[in-house]
Amino acid sequence: MRDHLAILHRRYLDLILTGRKTVESRLSVVRPRMFGLVRPGDRIWLKQAGGPIRAVATALHVEQWSGLAPADLQALRRAHGRSIAAPPDYWKRHAHARYAVLIWLHDVRTPLHTPAINRPRGSRHAWHILAPSARAATRTPPQTAP
User: Fold this and answer.
1) What topology does CATH give the domain 3-116+123-130?
2) Average pLDDT, integer, range 76-95
3) How many CB atoms lie within 10 A of CB 87?
């Protein structure tokens, strides 16, 4: 089992937390960092861009494609668009994507502990595969006295 950190815009994270978005998608012209590295059972920490980790989920199912043509992307949109819950401009921005990774999210919840993550400063990547040590080094939120 691997741990991953996915950075999402607030609107998508809110949709995941309400259950309206059940599939996380990553479309790209170049091979995404996590291509071939996300598997069912992996834990995905969901961090708001510019904010905190707000949730953790388990990858239930993963599908990925390479060498996509625009017609393939349209087929993916028709088949999974509702579960991806992305607006039309998302699909327009990624119209030339050649790679796709779809991750069905399961057991989405607010974490009691969050990993201590040392991301490189200035990193603009929206997906990180966490080192095994990050899994063991978790921070516990402060407890309030009753």
Assistant:
1) 2.30.130
2) 96
3) 10
